[in-house]
Amino acid sequence: MANHTGSEGVVKIGTNTLAEVRSWTLTNTADTIEDTTMGDSWRSFKSVLSAFTGSVVCYWDETDTNGQNALTSGSTVTLNLYPEGASTGDKYYSGSVIVTSIERTASFDGMVEATFSFQGTGTLSTSTAA
Description:
Number of domains: 1
Largest sheet: 8 strands, antiparallel
CATH class: Mainly Beta
Radius of gyration: 18 Å
Number of helices: 0
Order of helices and strands: EEEEEEEE
Shape: globular
Strand content: over 45%
CATH architecture: Beta Barrel
């Protein structure tokens, strides 16, 4: 059985590696519609449309020109999320996303962080790094 540590993960915008990533989340959802009819004793449903959302948390790096600075609210980018690294044979998720929000946080006893939230637009693909 294979498992991985979070430290193996990589996030890329297109082919550019996002700097200072702390964590990321990816949520897949499916809408359903009810197709129960009279005489049924249990409700039944059909899956109709799928979607994905998520976020990436980074230590803020204002010098990450092709990474963090490419993620602006409302921008559309190709996001590639690698849970096990980006070496040949590693699986990853890829899709076009719209950046829906950017949150920056700072405290006197911590690092400055940026959280980039996104909404997928279109298909989420599972691929293998070449």
